[in-house]
Write a structure and sequence with these properties.
The protein is α/β, with parallel strands linked by helices. It folds into three domains: 3-80, Arc Repressor Mutant, subunit A (Orthogonal Bundle); 88-159 and 260-297, Periplasmic binding protein-like II (D-Maltodextrin-Binding Protein, domain 2); 162-258, Periplasmic binding protein-like II (D-Maltodextrin-Binding Protein, domain 2), CATH 3.40.190.10. 46% of the residues lie in helices and 23% in strands. Strands 3, 4, 5, 6, 9, 10, 11 and 12 form an eight-stranded mixed β-sheet that branches. Strands 1-2 form a two-stranded antiparallel sheet. The longest helix is centred in the N-terminal third of the chain and has 22 residues, at 59-80. The two termini are 29 Å apart.
């Protein structure tokens, strides 16, 4: 019996449904169902009541979680315990927007706790970095997670979440997004990026009266153009230094999309002590910048 099956059961009871657990664990629903059946076969009794439309856990499922969860927590603690013997070389990709915020605390912690672990950095866009991880050219990457990120070859570890906002010229007094889109040109962020696709779909759905002839892959250029009154844009606020240099008015959007930043690695690679050390440091760094900036920690 694999330990992952017990971890899946814990996630199901916490998330309330198998579908929610599958999403949290980045597994397919069929994989979650298979692990549950393996547990039931191992125990020789059902863990869930499947007689109704909605599958419900039986008391024995909670009993099993109560027994196994302390052991799982202890195992995780043993795996993550700092050892100066963790060393080697890892190739880490990271998107541009995460470099000024997430990278400094990550490197400081790695230097302090794992001096023997050397990190080679590669910058790039999310989709290209994900492809490099899948091809084995990178050990891991910090990226904006695509909505359809399902791949049996990859494992995702959520770090942070960032909402999309409407940015307008700093002296603009109008607060209605609909009227702003009718008044200004929409400067579109690169639709080859995860955030750009989310923004474009949201704008296309909610604002029929819009004009857009400009699309850029450089966020600083977009913010600078909005700052001087050339248009408006929809983007995340992941790089505070840009907005300090180019003042804009930031307006919330109703039901705004959320960009999820995650660490992606190949399935199996994340079990190595070096990768576990890197992931632990990235999570700690994410908690630090989540407190300092406007991110939500995943």
């Amino acid at each position: 019996m694999k330990i992952e099956a017990f971890t899946t059961l814990v996630a199901i009871l916490k998330s309330k449904t198998m579908a929610a657990a599958a999403e949290k664990l980045n597994l397919t629903p069929s994989a979650v169902s298979m692990q549950v059946k393996q547990l039931e076969s191992y125990l020789g009794q059902p863990l869930f009541d499947r007689s109704a439309l909605r599958v419900k856990p039986l008391p024995v499922a909670q009993e099993l979680v109560d027994v196994i969860q302390p052991a799982l927590a202890r195992l995780e603690e043993l795996r993550r315990r700092s050892r100066p013997t963790i060393e080697g070389h890892l190739k880490l990709g990271i998107i541009n927007s995460m470099q000024p915020t997430l990278l400094p605390p990550t490197l400081l912690q790695l230097r302090a706790h794992y001096p023997g672990l050397q990190i080679a950095l590669t910058r790039g866009k999310s989709l290209a970095l994900i492809a490099s991880v899948k091809a084995g050219q990178l050990d891991a990457a910090v990226v904006a997670q695509p909505e359809n990120a399902g791949s049996a070859r990859l494992t995702w570890h959520p770090l942070l979440e960032d909402q999309l906002f409407l940015i307008a010229p700093p002296d603009e007094e109008e607060t209605s997004a609909t009227r702003l889109f009718a008044q200004y040109e929409w400067i579109c962020y690169d639709t080859n990026t995860v955030a750009g696709r989310l923004a474009a779909r949201y704008v296309g759905t909610h604002f029929k009266a819009r004009r857009s002839t400009i699309e850029f892959d450089e966020r600083r250029a977009i913010v600078s153009m909005v700052s001087v009154g050339l248009g408006i844009s929809v983007m995340q606020l992941a790089e505070p230094s840009i907005f300090a240099s180019y003042p804009v008015r930031v307006l919330p959007l109703a039901n705004s999309p959320v960009v999820s930043y995650s660490v992606v690695c190949r399935k199996g690679d994340g079990d190595s002590r070096a990768n576990q050390a890197l992931l632990s440091v990235l999570r700690n760094a994410a908690e630090q910048i989540g407190d300092r900036y406007h991110f939500r920690v995943s």
